[in-house]
């Protein structure tokens, strides 16, 4: 939809009173996009807002009666193809952001003024109009003489601007040279905050967020329906992180207070033994690395228990994407990062590359073959998306030609024929399609790759319903998941310790981040005693201990300001810590107040590095999440008895879906991906909102650190480890926050004796928060992490 708006100038005659701006017609919802200006114009900023930086997306005029951002007069809206045009005979609509400001803190939400360059250009144009004797630019050209006269004036003013004004503007726009080490910063990617009144979905993949919103809006589905469709979508578009060949945790809280945790974690096959990985890397690559997947059965159970929309309708969007889609920016990025892995695996190469055929003659020419296109040699027609790589691309079959493969690139056409057929069967038959009908074929594919999963292993898989755990932070009720997730108990212990520190009185500085780092080290030491409660005695007692106030008091008393210690200070002996980086998370809140968080995974990026030819599904390598024999895992960490391989056992995970209540009402849903960095990232984003008053976008954009006890180092993003100078940071669509404190945090941590490794990747977090003003005016605020190029959607 496109609309017209007029801006209130708050009494400043130098500011424009009317402006045309564009709004994109899509499903994102109402995107708040605002640029910060200087503190010296704070009073003026409270009265003005840049319309070109506010996009009204997929909203009708009537909808604005429910969402009223501050600082704007009443406007009329008219739908056009591209631009916003005035229509005086429509009802006027008021947009008011002020209620949102009261919830998240006043400064971040104050409307900002025009930038220096645009303010100068406007004043030049105003001066030209006054010289020409016309208040409206349309009057300048009513007669030829006036037009010629004003043209000369405009040309002279333009030359004056180029000579005198442009250097000033460029100076304002360019980064200032640092006065102290670490002051200069370069803004990289933006966290977009979307606002809705009925529903919001925050996922890693922007297209999948939109699909979730369509389920809510167009099919009148609930949060569970939207979460299922979004998860299936991410398995098609981002299969390096999440597929039907992996597992998931589903945390649900309904508006009526019902809570549920569906454990769809992968399990070790019935033939698994503790000795099977003693002397090889087979827990990472190939069929032996695959654990029995559980994602599809968990999604189906969630639908049977709580869904509203027919199952088939939730699968159909993913069928369409598997039939034909475009390679997204994140997938293209991951393909480049894992290029060697792709080309080493025939099945990955078939799925993620395109062939280039080159004539061997001197006048060599190239013919590019995209997925699904045909090529003909020796009167034989093949399609790249069908058959096997060996059948279709054996260069010895084609005289005078050699072929090579290049990675798929962003916006390349892409189809997954085998996966489409599997999804079509799943749409009709549900989980039985994979765990019964295709079980034998899938088992044979895994065994050909060296695995041990049988059809019986697949058909016997069961989702476990568990009771969520609760803990408290500053009057908020936090709901998370118990083992085999370590995330919930570890997060609970971290926050119990930090609550004693009263971070809101300390602020964001070296002292508060030292306390945070020490809390992380203690918590990760306790985490390593956890395991699958069905196999590890004492797990339930360990969870209770980690959530107790007494342990938090004891550990907090051992934190020494400006001093850190070796790992033995935090835990009695070194234990294992496995990571699952091939992971994704989504958060959903619907109109009724139902909330869902799903974290799904294939463990390492691209899982076991092979695709089942019969189903088109990329398989997990979760067996490496166990302590595998007498060797370190893929991340150089030592084995632990509590997490050893046993048939039917579920490996320990760091997945941490989290639902937060405030005064008994839904407040936010969040979670993340990134192995153990999930826990530390979720903790910091939560603290940024609950303790420091950030809106969700700023909370996600803020720089983060990570410590997992082993290795004994602090991983910090966005800065140089030796100098502590800021590097690339993240901004928001509301502002360009000042992250200069991060450099001082680095310096202070070094002074306390911490080892710093930087720049380092952080986890990836998605948040949907509910801003309920006096129980009457509801705002849903969604934000996805730019670290994975995500974007939320709302309506």
Question: Can you describe what's shown?
Answer:
The protein is α+β, with helices and mostly antiparallel strands and 795 residues long. It contains 24 helices and 28 strands. The strands form 7 sheets. It has a 9-stranded antiparallel sheet with strand order 2-1-4-27-26-21-20-17-16. It has a 7-stranded antiparallel sheet with strand order 15-7-6-19-18-5-28. The chain has a 3-stranded antiparallel sheet with strand order 10-9-13. Helix 17 (487-501) packs antiparallel against helix 19 (510-527) and helix 17 (487-501) packs across helix 22 (677-690).
Low-pLDDT segments: 1-25, 34-119, 135-142, 166-188, 360-401, 633-639
Bulk shape: globular
Determine the strand fraction and express it as a percent band: 15-25%
Distance between the termini: 13 Å
Sheet with the most strands: spatial strand order: 2-1-4-27-26-21-20-17-16
> What structural class do the secondary elements suggest?
alpha+beta
Helix amount: 25-40%
Give the averaged pLDDT, no decimals.
Answer: 77
Alpha-carbon Rg, integer: 28 Å
What oligomeric state best describes the polypeptide chains here?
Answer: single chain
Based on DSSP secondary structure assignment, what is the total number of beta strands? Answer: 28
């Amino acid at each position: 939809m496109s609309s017209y708006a007029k801006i209130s100038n708050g009494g400043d005659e130098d500011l424009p009173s009317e402006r045309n701006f564009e709004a994109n017609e899509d499903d994102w919802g109402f995107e708040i996009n605002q640029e910060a200006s200087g503190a010296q114009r704070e009073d003026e900023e409270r009265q003005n807002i840049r319309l070109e930086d506010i996009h009204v997306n997929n909203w009708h005029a009537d909808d604005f009666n429910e969402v009223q951002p501050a600082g704007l007069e009443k406007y009329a809206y008219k739908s056009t193809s591209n631009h916003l045009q005035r229509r005086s005979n429509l009802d006027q609509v008021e947009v008011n952001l002020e209620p949102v400001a009261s919830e998240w803190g006043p400064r971040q939400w104050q409307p900002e003024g025009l930038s220096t360059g645009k303010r100068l250009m406007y004043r030049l144009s105003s001066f030209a109009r006054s010289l020409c004797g016309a208040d409206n630019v349309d009057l300048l050209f009513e007669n030829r003489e006036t037009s010629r006269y004003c043209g000369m004036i405009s040309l002279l003013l333009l030359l004056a601007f180029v000579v005198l004004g442009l250097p000033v503007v460029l100076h304002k726009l360019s980064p200032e040279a640092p006065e102290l080490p670490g002051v200069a910063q370069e803004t990289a990617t933006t966290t977009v905050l979307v606002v809705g009144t009925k529903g919001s979905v925050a996922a890693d993949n922007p297209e999948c967020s939109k699909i979730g919103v369509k389920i809510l809006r167009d099919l009148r589905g609930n949060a569970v329906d939207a979460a299922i469709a979004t998860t299936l979508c991410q398995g098609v578009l981002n299969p390096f992180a999440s597929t039907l060949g992996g597992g998931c945790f589903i945390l649900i809280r309904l508006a009526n207070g019902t809570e549920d945790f569906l454990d769809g974690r992968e399990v070790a096959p019935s033939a698994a033994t503790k000795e099977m990985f003693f002397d090889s890397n087979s827990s990472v690559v190939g069929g032996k690395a695959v654990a029995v997947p559980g994602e599809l059965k968990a999604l189906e159970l969630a639908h049977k228990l709580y869904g509203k929309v027919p199952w088939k309708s939730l699968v159909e969007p993913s069928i369409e994407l598997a039939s034909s889609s475009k390679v997204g920016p994140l997938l293209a990025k991951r393909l480049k990062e894992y290029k060697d892995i792709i080309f080493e695996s025939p099945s990955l190469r078939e799925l993620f590359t395109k062939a280039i055929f080159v004539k061997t003659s001197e006048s060599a020419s190239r013919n590019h073959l995209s997925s699904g296109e045909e090529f003909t040699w020796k009167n034989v027609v093949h399609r790249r998306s069908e058959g096997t790589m060996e059948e279709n691309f054996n260069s010895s079959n084609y005289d005078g030609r050699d072929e090579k493969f290049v990675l798929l690139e962003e916006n390349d056409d892409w189809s997954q024929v085998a996966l489409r057929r599997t999804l079509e069967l799943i749409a009709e038959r549900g989980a039985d399609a994979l765990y019964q009908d295709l079980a034998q074929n899938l088992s044979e594919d895994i065994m050909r790759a060296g695995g041990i999963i049988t059809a019986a292993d697949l058909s016997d898989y069961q989702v476990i319903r568990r009771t969520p755990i609760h803990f408290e932070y500053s009057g908020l009720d936090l709901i998370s998941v118990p083992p085999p997730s370590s995330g919930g108990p570890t997060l609970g212990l971290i926050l119990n310790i930090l609550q004693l520190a009263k971070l809101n009185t300390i602020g964001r500085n070296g002292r508060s981040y030292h306390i945070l780092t020490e809390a992380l080290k203690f918590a990760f030491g306790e985490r390593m005693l956890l395991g699958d409660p069905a196999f590890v005695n004492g797990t339930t007692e360990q969870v209770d201990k980690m959530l107790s106030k007494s342990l938090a008091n004891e550990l907090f008393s051992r934190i020494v300001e400006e001093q850190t210690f070796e790992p033995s200070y935090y835990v009695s002996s070194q234990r294992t810590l496995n990571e699952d980086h091939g992971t994704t998370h989504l958060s959903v809140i619907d109109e009724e107040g139902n909330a869902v968080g799903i974290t799904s995974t294939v463990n390492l990026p691209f899982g076991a590095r092979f695709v089942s030819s019969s189903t088109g599904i990329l398989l997990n390598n979760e067996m490496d999440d166990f302590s595998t024999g007498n060797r370190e895992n893929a991340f150089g960490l030592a084995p632990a008895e509590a997490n050893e391989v046993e048939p039917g056992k579920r490996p320990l995970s760091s997945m941490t879906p989290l639902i937060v209540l405030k005064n008994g009402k839904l407040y936010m849903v969040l979670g993340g991906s990134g192995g153990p960095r999930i826990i530390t990232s979720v903790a910091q984003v939560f603290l940024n909102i609950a303790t420091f008053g950030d809106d969700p976008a700023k909370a996600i954009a803020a720089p983060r650190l990570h410590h997992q006890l082993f290795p004994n180092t602090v991983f910090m993003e966005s800065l140089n480890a030796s100098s502590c100078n800021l590097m690339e940071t993240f901004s928001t669509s509301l502002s360009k926050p000042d992250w200069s404190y991060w450099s001082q945090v680095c310096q202070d941590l070094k002074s306390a004796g911490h080892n710093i490794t930087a720049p380092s990747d952080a986890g990836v977090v998605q948040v949907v928060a509910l801003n309920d003003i006096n129980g009457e005016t509801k705002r849903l605020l969604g934000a996805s992490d730019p670290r994975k190029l995500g974007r939320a959607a709302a309506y």
